[in-house]
Automatic annotation (TrEMBL):
GO terms for cellular component: ribosome. The lineage of its organism: Bacteria, Thermotogati, Deinococcota, Deinococci, Deinococcales. Keywords: Acyltransferase, Ribonucleoprotein, Ribosomal protein, Transferase. Residues 23-179 form the N-acetyltransferase domain. PANTHER family: AMINOALKYLPHOSPHONATE N-ACETYLTRANSFERASE-RELATED-RELATED. This is Ribosomal protein S18 acetylase RimI-like enzyme. It comes from Deinococcus humi. GO terms for molecular function: acyltransferase activity, transferring groups other than amino-acyl groups. InterPro entries: Acyl_CoA_acyltransferase, Bact_Acetyltransf, GNAT_dom. Pfam families: Acetyltransf_1.
């Protein structure tokens, strides 16, 4: 008896014909990291969030977000990159980690061409969905993504708090993988890609994992700020002030540091907790979007 697929046949997805233009869409793999870093910086020039041309930070981002240069694409005019699509991959999911086009080449279909090629390549690799985040209010990007079948999954917000004193307590140093284990055990929803465990496990030199009682956290400390990357308490011990005590203990250790929670937190998570602990919501928010292939 011939074998057959239990899932049945899926109709092929299409995203339109390739754009005829004076540029080509090519693999990013042959380009050196400094050239890609420069292309990314140029692609985000003038946007709400700029990205500096920093090859070291770019290389760290590749590792931290599982960006695959062999799957990433560049739009090229006469050997010069004028657009860049960074593609991250995990299991059966791809993510548009960044899409940028140089100022002089915007509104020439470069972004659309990169997106179409990225989606077609993801489907050819057998991936079943593609994710991305877009700044809320970037209407042109939203229009493009929706035209390609992306739908909003949830709104992502961030929080900030000014520097201030805390309440000292004996904080224990922890291993990052153990904080990641707690996150997996006690989170019911899928984490946004940049906050998920694979990203957590690739910590930069400024990362610090800590624990106070049942509460654990992963932070990144710079000269003036603390970025809160993860904060978790077991389900059965929530609502007892453990997370607040850990934040206060860290504030006592870093009284001159302001606090930042990147705009990657689903808005349904922790709003009351952050407000109660003196945080206010950042003006910049994002939309997490997905298309099934």
């Amino acid at each position: 008896m011939p074998a057959h697929s239990c899932a049945g046949k899926r109709a092929p997805m299409t995203w339109g014909a390739p754009v005829s233009a004076p540029y080509t869409v090519e693999s990013a793999l042959p380009l050196a990291v400094p050239a890609l870093s420069n292309a990314l910086a140029e692609g985000f020039e003038g946007y709400a969030v700029s990205i500096p041309d920093d090859p070291v930070a770019f290389a760290q981002r590749l590792r931290g977000e599982q960006i695959d240069l062999a799957s990433s694409l560049v739009a090229v005019v006469a050997t010069r990159p004028v657009g860049l699509a960074l593609i991250a991959r995990r299991s059966d999911t791809a993510r548009i980690a960044a899409l940028g086009v140089s100022v002089s080449w915007r509104r020439h279909g470069v972004g659309a061409a990169l997106m179409r090629a990225s989606l077609a390549a993801a489907a050819a690799r057998g991936e079943t969905r593609v994710m991305l985040e877009v700044i809320e209010g970037n209407d042109r990007a939203l229009q493009l993504y929706r035209s390609l079948g992306f739908e909003v999954q949830r709104r992502l917000v961030g929080y900030e708090r000014p520097a201030g004193s805390g309440v000292a307590a004996p904080i224990c140093e922890e291993r990052v993988n153990l904080v990641a284990r707690d996150v997996v055990a006690h989170m019911k929803e899928e984490l946004p890609w940049p906050l998920a465990v694979p990203s957590m496990l690739v910590s930069g030199p400024q990362a610090r994992a800590v624990r106070l009682g049942p509460a654990s956290a992963l932070i990144s400390v710079s000269a003036q700020s603390i970025v809160l990357r993860a904060l978790v308490v077991p389900w059965e011990q929530r609502g007892q002030g453990h997370a607040t005590r850990l934040l206060r203990a860290l504030a006592a250790e870093y009284p001159d540091h302001r606090w930042v929670v990147p705009p990657l937190i689903p808005e349904s998570w922790g709003r009351r907790f952050f407000t109660r602990n003196g945080f206010h919501e950042q003006p910049l928010s994002q939309l997490e979007m997905m298309v099934s292939l």
